[in-house]
Amino acid sequence: MTTSPKIVALATATPPRNHTRESLLAFVCDHTLGKDWDKQRELRERARQIERIFLASKVEARQLSVDLDAFYERPRTTGERMETYATAAYELGRKALEACLRVAPDYDASAITDFTVVSCTGYTAPGLDILLSRDLGIRPDARRVVVGHMGCFGALVGLRQLLATMRAYPNAVAALLCVELSSLHFAANLDRNAHTQMALFGDGAASVLLSNDPAARGPQLVDAYCVSDFSAASQMTWEVGDAGFVMSLSPRVPVTLRRHVQTAVERLLTPHGLGIRDVTHWLAHPGGPSILEAIAARLELSDEQLAHSWKVLREHGNCSSATVLMVLEEALKSGATHPGEWGVMMAFGPGLTLETCLLRF
């Protein structure tokens, strides 16, 4: 019999600095155009262009790890950003993981046999997998994996790999932690991609705990499927530069996604005798409004069916790999899930890659 581990605990964490769309827009204009931008006609027009990007994002609030004005009072090198990442990612990741363990009082850190950490916004060695294991009491012989620089679909890569691990080791207890600090990579220039990054992305962390215990409660992780369109690899990039990580995002991404998403979902569902209409809960990574709109159009989903994704986008922005787990948390908290119902998680990123997971509640 194929094992389907259960997500016995899920918790998310966001940093304490809350920003509205308006406050972030003001910051970007001041640091990109200069403090007196509103006194020059040409700069006012540029500010209106930036404002249109912010409005189009549909993001109303974000939570960030750094004091933007203090951190960006001068240009920052990649090394300085990584130094900040080492401290801030540890604090936020620990907050999420400890909260996750509190949700499952039958488990403590010493029960974890497999620990996967996902991040694409920073690096440190020893990594978060080692530092958090040491400080929270995860056993020293735990199997640790770090998923780095895979982008917004990283959480589902972690779940896919842990699904295989837990089928190989029936007594395993696995933890997954996603930590992303996109705010460390602001660039004060007039590039549209830089403005899109600040209009859309926020900071956040999420953690889940998986167990094969048949008595445990929580959604079952049933299967996973991934596919990439290598011909579209250049449509989404996340490159390490001397002044932080630099994003490029083609307007063709929603078109490519729309071309592939139905086939990807069908290949996830068909082996289980399911079709798209059998799925009650759609937990899509809200990469941006155009992404959600493309999914809804191709799969013929209503706004209500993607309501949790839209809510996370509106209230937190795109927190990269942590975001799809934030969407799952919203679904569970809403009370809308019922035993026996099916759910599909999906996320997208460089490659151009589509990652999917099948859940049974």
Structure description:
This protein is an alpha/beta fold and 361 residues long. It has two domains: 6-211, Peroxisomal Thiolase, Chain A, domain 1, CATH 3.40.47.10; 220-360, 3-Layer(aba) Sandwich (Peroxisomal Thiolase, Chain A, domain 1). Helices cover 39% and strands 25% of the residues. It has eleven helices and 13 strands. The strands form four sheets. A five-stranded mixed beta sheet has the order 1-7-6-4-5, with helices on both faces. Strand 9 (236-241) and strand 10 (244-249) form a beta hairpin. The longest helix is centred in the first third of the chain and has 26 residues, at 78-103. The protein is globular and about 65 Å long.
Note the topology.
Blueprint: E1 6-13, E2 17-20, H1 21-33, H2 41-56, E3 61-64, H3 68-71, H4 78-103, E4 114-119, H5 128-136, E5 143-148, H6 154-168, E6 173-181, H7 192-200, E7 203-211, E8 220-228, E9 236-241, E10 244-249, H8 253-269, E11 279-284, H9 289-299, H10 307-316, H11 323-334, E12 342-349, E13 353-360
Parallel strand pairs: 4-5, 4-6, 11-12
Antiparallel strand pairs: 1-7, 2-3, 6-7, 8-13, 9-10, 12-13
List its traits:
single chain; alpha/beta; Peroxisomal Thiolase, Chain A, domain 1; five-stranded mixed beta sheet; 25% strand; 361 residues; four-stranded mixed beta sheet
